[in-house]
Amino acid sequence: MNRNSHHVVVVGAGFGGLEFTRALADASVRITMIDKRNHHLFQPLLYQVATTALATSEIAWPIRHLLRKRKDVTTLLANVNGVDRAGKNVLLEDGSAIAYDTLVLATGARHAYFGHDEWEPFAPGLKTLEDATAIRRRILLAFEQAERETDPARRWALLTLAIVGGGPTGVELAGTIAELAHDALRGEFRNIDTGQARVVLIEAGDRILANFAPDLSAYAAKALERLGVTIELGRAVTRCDAEGVVFGDKQLAAKTILWAAGVAASPAAEWLGTPADRAGRVLVEPDLTVPGSPEIFVIGDAAHVPRPDGRLVPGVAPAAKQEGRHVAATLKARLAGDTSPRPFRYRHDGDLATIGKRAAVIDFGWMKLTGWPAWWLWGLAHIYFLIGFRNRLAVSLSWLWIYATGQRSARLITQGDDDKG
Amino acid sequence: MNRNSHHVVVVGAGFGGLEFTRALADASVRITMIDKRNHHLFQPLLYQVATTALATSEIAWPIRHLLRKRKDVTTLLANVNGVDRAGKNVLLEDGSAIAYDTLVLATGARHAYFGHDEWEPFAPGLKTLEDATAIRRRILLAFEQAERETDPARRWALLTLAIVGGGPTGVELAGTIAELAHDALRGEFRNIDTGQARVVLIEAGDRILANFAPDLSAYAAKALERLGVTIELGRAVTRCDAEGVVFGDKQLAAKTILWAAGVAASPAAEWLGTPADRAGRVLVEPDLTVPGSPEIFVIGDAAHVPRPDGRLVPGVAPAAKQEGRHVAATLKARLAGDTSPRPFRYRHDGDLATIGKRAAVIDFGWMKLTGWPAWWLWGLAHIYFLIGFRNRLAVSLSWLWIYATGQRSARLITQGDDDKG
Hints:
The structure is a homodimer of 421-residue chains.
Chain A: E1 7-11, H1 15-23, E2 30-35, E3 39-41, H2 46-50, E4 60-62, H3 63-66, E5 73-77, E6 80-84, E7 89-92, E8 97-99, E9 102-105, E10 109-111, H4 129-148, H5 152-158, E11 160-164, H6 168-184, E12 198-203, H7 214-226, E13 229-233, E14 237-241, E15 244-247, E16 250-253, E17 256-259, E18 263-265, H8 268-272, E19 282-283, E20 289-290, E21 293-298, E22 303-304, H9 317-335, E23 351-355, E24 359-363, E25 368-370, H10 371-385, H11 389-405
Parallel strand pairs in A: 1-2, 1-9, 2-5, 9-21, 11-12, 11-17, 12-13, 19-22
Antiparallel strand pairs in A: 3-4, 6-7, 7-8, 10-18, 14-15, 15-16, 20-21, 23-24, 24-25
Helix pairs in contact in A: 1-9, 4-5
């Protein structure tokens, strides 16, 4: 690769960043991929790690292994601190700088607490592998402590698990936690009955899965209730602390609270010094460039991209991938001398969410699917999209095993406060 | 189960504690199993987690799941603080006490630094899942940092990995790390050649695998050198710090140092206020009871058990299991009215160690085995001894995959200092 060729720096090896890099396979550019983690994460299945169904290595892959055959790509594990737009440099935490000709920021999102960051220790969210193992640890420890707790009120608080947010992540967490407690763990304790554990899903709006058609929301609510999940609608959470969660006039004593209610973008807007929306997403031009810097693109969850009907492009993997492909095509056109603007158009394929291991809802718009056909389609689609063949095989095996036996393989409590894992 | 029946408390669900509990399946006693972790760990394969070949959940199982069908067993996740021998109570960290009629301490060992605990941050040992993921993180991060390091001396220190201790664990770590660097990671970096990484095995004695026959030691040394491991014999380590490791007159600049040199028993002797050997192992009677307390047994790595020839019963899984079965038989005899002393006799089946993925050494005494036949026998034996069928399948799959493709599935850097995983 010619050291003088066009240098593209990509920050973030999520769905958007990786897809962009792939689509640029035959372009005559040098690419540097920077990520603060060494692995790409298949986030749609992260809740299954948090609920003991899958092992961490089944949904994550080393980035440099994924890109090993791309001799045009250098992978760096590094923390980005800022962007020098005038000098065209990405600034790293260690003080070094990396010059770019084109910069693609695909830095994703974290969970947000609507200005209440003090809730985070009591209500962790789910975005990274560490989040998932921490939540797994929290859920399993609650049952362990309940087994030893003699005070009935405290025992009830330990056996109460609250999930805040009725979107797909909240619904998937609630369903699998209910199955874990009411099914997989049953019979393994002597002083408690995990079948009595309360799983409560709290949603501020008037229905769960608000992005789906109303009849699918109603179906999902029924399916969740069949699994033993209590759904609380119409009241927003106003406090989370060591005692539990307060929503509206209700106080729920719960030692385990999980946060699935909001996301906030990464600090890309701060790095750029460019306007962002309330959630921190960069307000990009229709071609996904940053205003005033046509050589900088922002894609995926870090970007605020309006659709013609006024709604935003959603923060899902297919959207990030479409944006990655679009930016790659734009860059190739530019390198070929065509600098005409190329506005991005989002194609929405559908929404889907699973409810435990036998039901799911899929909303394609033109078609709706529920029950076990939806669940099987969901399972096949996710196995298909898993990147490595090795992981497809391992995940299929894990799921078949759980499906057939109800046993889960990743029920490990690790990384306690005193284990500097 | 009759609440008034004989109550047996077991502390530690390692090989010894679990085997004891199993052997007591048909006895009319109540059993309480206490462990400070929620999982039984298959320690012989822990080095494979540390070197990215296996996932954590492939070698660990929830204790209460293993014992779920044993309605006579209550499993508690708890930290033990001491033993009240006079009152026959196990004292827990939370202030509560658990009364016993018979107590079995099977609390295992940690690594020891011969009075130099200040070395631990620079030279971590390998006893728990957290140890393994921390070591995995350390090894992978060294290569990531080397890829970005421009100073040649610092880059060499990052590409130098030292293993202290030439026993089976040290040999297995050195062999798999050499394969990881020289084989699996090769071609994935752009600024370094991991094939140049130095893996140095440091042993104070005059040969590695000192417990084996000399010709097997020599074979293992040759096999390691073929994998690119440098073996340093005859000089004890006198310092470990951020710069590297000092042994004899030699100073080796190494950013990654792993400790496989010594074990120290758990605090069981302190709990009991009874004499221990230099490594902290309880000096037990020939029947494995504690002097003066015939109702307390100590088994496994926590016990100092001499053999007729003066050597000690080794700290390996088969020894712990034999002791567990012996104590169970003793207890059953006692419950039947036979209180005659029953001295424990150890039967040594052999020693084995693997060197990378194509060689191993096995010393049965009456037969010695090297090369790929030993490796295959080692692999089959370990799969056979893995407890859950699910894990046998998963581990077999992982190994076949690595064997066939050289790819490793668990190359994840998680749990950084700022990730409170």
